[in-house]
Amino acid sequence: MSPEALVAELRRELIVWLTRKGGAATDVEDVVQDAFLRFHRAGYQLGAPDARPLLFVIARNLQKDRWKAEGRDARRRTDDDVHALDRGPHALASETSQADDRLIQRQNLAAAAAIIRALPPRCRDAFLLHRFEALTYRQIAARLGVSVSMVEKYVAEALRQLKKTREG
Question: Which of 131, 139, 98, 99 is nearest to 115 (CA)?
Answer without folding.
Answer: 131
